[in-house]
């Protein structure tokens, strides 16, 4: 049984889910498949050089409702899971809202974030496949910590291409790479053809998550001793993240609640998808639960993008993914919430949005950071940048409930800030934060490739 102490709802280790959930099996519509360069749906044989067998099965299997969490992965999860849920009583009082706000704190993992939920199984399956190492791309210390820790658990070498810091030869998060023994390469780099091309054509400050992924993917295609890992977007990463939604479902049930609104920020959308997935069947069966994805206003893939097939990486090396996208050539501005600077949204989330199960809003960073500061001063948790966008929309919805006099239940997750050297609110409090504008010319050029497509 869950333990309820004040405003905290805690599950025991025995109550942690033992299986991940595959929402695709319950959807009343088909999520289009990834496409290979041949123009046909991608096959397991084509993915085999890059991914372990179990990852491929999770990626391509649309019929199995659940997948077993291996005991080794579950044991690693138990270091910090199940994560606690809180009723945001202080924030409710600050807002004077009639809504009930519940949030899970997805901190406590070695990475300080939810990304360990998928890094650990990806590393475990890579070890099971007999590979010596794992390679990936990213944009900072959280994914580096998550995958570096996971690789160390299973004795794997690890290399991550991470976006280069502006005006520097160093990568974001390279300090975390040193902690876990990860070989962190500043992207774009000279190590790969895609990186060298980007570096020569656009310069060292032109890096993005998509470019970093292109470099890692290219290396994995050439090196049979390593497997490729990806932090988000793909179906298997969303499946791994459902442990968050499954725990939340049990915690809310312990206080006889079910969500009317589930809110989360998105970059590529796997964490948001993992949070909402267990609640989707109730929506299909008639419950009017709203799922609200929150974008950065300068990277609005759902609210301004097009639905098409696009590569997950900047060089177009990876399979074509059916998703809402700004186009892989879109160059987003350097907002502080780096995880939200991505050109597309996970296929399952994109399909749910297309079928009107998911709504989307976009917020700027000043208003989001201001909302985050209010949350911190009320609830006592210093937030990571992307969590502030979630909180901004949570506050907006709580105020709408107040105006309507309804007692809606709102579910969301937050992750704490992981750096102790600086506060994520410094630029806001110093009065130097500014909102980044959508790069209209870059967007027009990037989307131009899709004109005329069906």
Task: Please explain how this structure is put together.
There is one protein chain. With 454 residues, the protein is an alpha/beta fold. The chain has two domains: 126 residues, Rossmann fold (3-Layer(aba) Sandwich), CATH 3.40.50; 243 residues, Rossmann fold, CATH 3.40.50. 38% of the residues lie in helices and 17% in strands. The protein contains 18 helices and 16 strands. A hairpin with an 8-residue loop joins strand 13 and strand 14. The mean pLDDT is 93.
Known CATH architecture of the largest domain: 3-Layer(aba) Sandwich
How many strands appear in the DSSP assignment?
16
Mean pLDDT: 93
Rg, Cα atoms, Å: 21 Å
CATH top level of the largest domain is: Alpha Beta
Q: Please summarize the sheet with the most strands.
A: 8 strands, mixed
Shape: globular
Query: What is the domain total for the residues?
Result: 2
Classify the secondary structure makeup into a structural class: alpha/beta
| CATH topology-level name of the largest domain | Rossmann fold
Percent of residues in β-strands:
15-25%
Uncertain segments: none
Residues in helices, as a percent range: 25-40%
Number of H/I helices: 18
Main β-sheet, spatial strand arrangement: 1-2-5-6-16-11-12-15
How far apart are the first and last residues' alpha carbons, in Å? Answer: 51 Å
């Amino acid at each position: 049984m869950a333990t309820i102490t004040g405003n905290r709802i805690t599950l025991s280790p025995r109550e942690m889910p033992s299986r991940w959930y595959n929402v695709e099996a319950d959807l009343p519509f088909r999520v289009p498949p990834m496409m290979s360069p041949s123009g046909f749906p991608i096959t397991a044989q084509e993915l085999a050089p890059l991914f372990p067998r179990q990852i491929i099965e999770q990626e391509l299997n649309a019929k199995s409702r659940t997948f077993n969490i291996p005991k080794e992965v579950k044991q690693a999860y138990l270091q910090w899971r199940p994560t606690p849920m809180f009723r945001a009583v202080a924030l409710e009082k600050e807002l004077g809202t009639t809504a009930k706000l519940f949030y899970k704190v997805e901190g406590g993992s070695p990475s300080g974030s939810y990304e360990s939920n998928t890094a650990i199984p990806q590393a475990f399956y890579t070890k099971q496949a007999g590979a010596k190492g794992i390679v990936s791309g990213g944009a900072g210390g959280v994914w580096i910590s998550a995958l570096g820790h996971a690789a160390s658990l299973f004795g794997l070498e690890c290399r991550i291409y991470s976006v280069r810091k502006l005006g520097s030869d160093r990568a974001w998060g390279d300090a975390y790479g040193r902690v876990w023994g990860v070989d962190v390469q500043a992207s774009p780099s000279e190590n790969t053809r895609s990186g060298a091309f980007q570096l020569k054509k656009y310069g060292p400050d032109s890096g993005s998550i998509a470019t970093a992924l292109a470099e890692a993917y290219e290396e994995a295609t050439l090196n049979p001793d390593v497997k490729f890992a990806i932090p988000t977007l793909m179906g298997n990463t969303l499946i791994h993240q459902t442990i968050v939604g499954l725990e939340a479902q049990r915690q809310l049930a312990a206080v006889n609640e079910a969500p009317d609104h589930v809110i989360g920020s998105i970059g590529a959308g796997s964490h948001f998808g993992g949070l909402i997935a267990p609640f989707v069947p109730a929506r299909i069966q008639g419950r009017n639960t709203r799922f609200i994805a929150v974008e950065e206003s300068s990277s609005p893939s759902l609210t301004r993008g097009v639905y098409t097939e696009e590569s997950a990486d900047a060089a177009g090396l990876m399979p074509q993914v059916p998703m809402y996208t700004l186009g892989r050539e879109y160059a987003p501005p350097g907002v502080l919430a780096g995880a939200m600077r991505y050109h597309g949204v996970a296929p399952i989330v994109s399909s749910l949005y297309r079928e009107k199960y998911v709504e989307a809003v976009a917020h700027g960073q000043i208003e989001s950071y201001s909302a985050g500061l209010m949350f911190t001063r009320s609830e006592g948790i210093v937030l990571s940048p992307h969590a502030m966008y979630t909180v901004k929309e949570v506050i907006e919805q709580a105020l709408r409930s107040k105006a309507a006099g309804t007692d809606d239940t709102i579910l969301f997750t937050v992750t704490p800030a992981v750096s102790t050297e600086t506060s994520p609110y410094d630029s806001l409090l110093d009065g130097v934060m500014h909102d980044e504008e959508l790069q209209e010319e870059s967007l027009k050029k990037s989307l131009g490739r899709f004109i005329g497509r069906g």
